[in-house]
């Protein structure tokens, strides 16, 4: 009997709904087929996002700050919709169907974007951006563009919430060999994200600028179709795990029950609180968020002995309450990482606009402005390699630990991004000084500037330090957040926790759009100029970067306080999984 159980994976089934056989399902081959979807998703999303600001300004004739906000709102929506995708996967569809549906949605979005950028009727006539005859895109043209963009955002949100989870489903964490492979999968997952981004900011951006946007976006659609067929080819080899219901329901149950019992005093002995979870699966009581403990108080009428258990909207077990507490303890760390992604948003908006005004030539070759983000991706890959091969071994020899903790990684990322914004402010001061001195040699440089005009006599490589600092910060903060939110969340809430992590990216982009709107309103003078002028040569982008650096310092202090306050649950050492534990 034990031998037979060893041939199957206890908590997974195959495509027929039968227990998944270990030798015929799961492992690296199915996981690799799933990663193919992630590569082309990142290729499409980032290939569009990093160069969209130049299309909105140069083709649709929108003001600088408006263009930047459209890009950040698009990216913010992509990550915010991860919560919707996670809810659908947990509650109704499962991860396989969620990926299959939303990858089709994203393919339709990129195909529509290819058509939108090709048809002249869907964009205003070309002109000098600062001439009186220049017209911005009308409502219909913008509506069609928005429809294409937000179809892509919907597809991206549904995919991102399930790809990493479905990939890890292919490995059995109760098997030592496969558990080691799962850890390796996370490293490869982030590596493939970076490879997709690298291809997007080099090859795809070059095609957009030098060949045509419709061709580039068409390539995105074709590669997505290929990825769909590759993904479907693994249907018989995948392991499927049954959805356990939305964790949001459990959270609402605990909160609602605690509120309804708010006038009842807690017992002096926590052992009197209700608990029906098997001993190996229990989470021991903690003192934080004691108000929620009231959800586990047994009151008259809570127990219905005619049914299998109590009404979960009237009585919750201590373990369920503690799981909600675990999610609650994540929130301060969650909130203090949002500012990093606000900083990150500058790398694909204002930094690209800076690059578009500068000398980008290497000999006879002209670097596309959007391709400057290649230094951002390079910084991520270099940082990961140095950390893996140099820092981790040295740290293990010195401190006896295999690398930094997740909270330490997040702190390092916040520090690097704050320094990166200070460096960006200094670089912008230099660029503006060159622009102002150049105006005396060519009085029309500021008024005649367009996206395709002559560049200022200053090398675009001045921007490399800010790309490298923020890129290195992302390498630390992304891996730190992913590790933190997955390992510190309850077992049944890991998909939701992943969505919570991705929502920090979303809110970072939305905070950036809000901040831009506020700064533009507060600093704009009667002549229409301010920190964020429609033409950045008229503005004071250096002041905006300085503001972000200051906010980064304040946020870092708050984060350190929250990190000290955070008290993770200490897991019991388990030498082997018992039958009872397998049922948890």
TrEMBL record:
<feature type="transmembrane region" description="Helical">
    <location>
        <begin position="74"/>
        <end position="93"/>
    </location>
</feature>
<dbReference type="Pfam" id="PF00854">
    <property type="entry name" value="PTR2"/>
</dbReference>
<feature type="transmembrane region" description="Helical">
    <location>
        <begin position="214"/>
        <end position="232"/>
    </location>
</feature>
<dbReference type="InterPro" id="IPR018456">
    <property type="entry name" value="PTR2_symporter_CS"/>
</dbReference>
<feature type="transmembrane region" description="Helical">
    <location>
        <begin position="330"/>
        <end position="347"/>
    </location>
</feature>
<comment type="similarity">
    <text>Belongs to the major facilitator superfamily. Proton-dependent oligopeptide transporter (POT/PTR) (TC 2.A.17) family.</text>
</comment>
<feature type="transmembrane region" description="Helical">
    <location>
        <begin position="189"/>
        <end position="208"/>
    </location>
</feature>
<feature type="transmembrane region" description="Helical">
    <location>
        <begin position="367"/>
        <end position="387"/>
    </location>
</feature>
<dbReference type="GO" id="GO:0016020">
    <property type="term" value="C:membrane"/>
</dbReference>
<dbReference type="InterPro" id="IPR036259">
    <property type="entry name" value="MFS_trans_sf"/>
</dbReference>
<keyword id="KW-0812">Transmembrane</keyword>
<feature type="transmembrane region" description="Helical">
    <location>
        <begin position="100"/>
        <end position="119"/>
    </location>
</feature>
<feature type="transmembrane region" description="Helical">
    <location>
        <begin position="407"/>
        <end position="427"/>
    </location>
</feature>
<feature type="transmembrane region" description="Helical">
    <location>
        <begin position="456"/>
        <end position="478"/>
    </location>
</feature>
<feature type="transmembrane region" description="Helical">
    <location>
        <begin position="544"/>
        <end position="566"/>
    </location>
</feature>
<protein>
    <submittedName>
        <fullName>Protein NRT1/ PTR FAMILY 6.2</fullName>
    </submittedName>
</protein>
<keyword id="KW-1133">Transmembrane helix</keyword>
<feature type="transmembrane region" description="Helical">
    <location>
        <begin position="499"/>
        <end position="519"/>
    </location>
</feature>
<comment type="similarity">
    <text>Belongs to the major facilitator superfamily. Phosphate:H(+) symporter (TC 2.A.1.9) family.</text>
</comment>
<keyword id="KW-0472">Membrane</keyword>
<dbReference type="InterPro" id="IPR000109">
    <property type="entry name" value="POT_fam"/>
</dbReference>
<feature type="transmembrane region" description="Helical">
    <location>
        <begin position="139"/>
        <end position="159"/>
    </location>
</feature>
